[in-house]
């Protein structure tokens, strides 16, 4: 069951990333909110190294695949992101902001790892930033006043990709903290799915 849920999460999140790359290039924008993207990349890079240092594992391989996909999404963000900001945000300022953003994201992951250790750090940081991503996707829809750079595939796959580890760590491993955060993620993920479902333009993804 553990391997099955890990693979479900891996396939679903890989679907999120593949679709985010496609939609970002199609709409000439980025399809994952910047703060969530930075935290995700930092998490995947950090824990891919940590997992693979102890030997080959399904989650370690999945993390490597996700980190590679994140690099492509980051490329769409760096290419198209500045054009969606006010004119006073020059390229040097945009570069400085991104250095701070991604630097802070890695610092957060390392602090979680140092304070909580591998077992709890990987779970606590993952579900906290997953909740942030769920909220930010709703904010992205509201901020863009529609589904530009978004799709139902991303929304549904993100929900399923979070639901599987919620069952694994929250229910099977009996972690009320993870279960609570996972339930909150589902609330916002389902709200986001409902927003896209009500938008006629989103049905043609």
How would you portray this structure in words?
The chain has one domain. Helix 1 (2-27) runs parallel beside helix 3, helix 2 (34-53) runs antiparallel to helix 3 (58-80) and helix 4 (91-144) packs across helix 6 (176-198). It has helices at 2-27, 34-53, 58-80, 91-144, 152-172, 176-198. It starts with a helix and ends in a 7-residue tail after the last helix. The longest helix is centred in the middle third of the chain and has 54 residues, at 91-144. With 205 residues, the protein is an all-alpha fold. It is found in: Membrane. It is a multi-pass membrane protein. Keywords: Membrane, Transmembrane, Transmembrane helix.
SSE ordering: HHHHHH
Helix tally? 6
Percentage of helical residues?
over 70%
Q: Overall 3D geometry? A: globular
How large is the radius of gyration?
Answer: 17 Å
Main beta sheet: strand number and arrangement?
A: none
Distance separating the two termini? 32 Å
Q: Please, how many domains?
A: 1
Low-confidence stretches: none
DSSP strand count: 0
Strand content: under 5%
Q: How confident is the prediction overall: mean pLDDT? A: 91
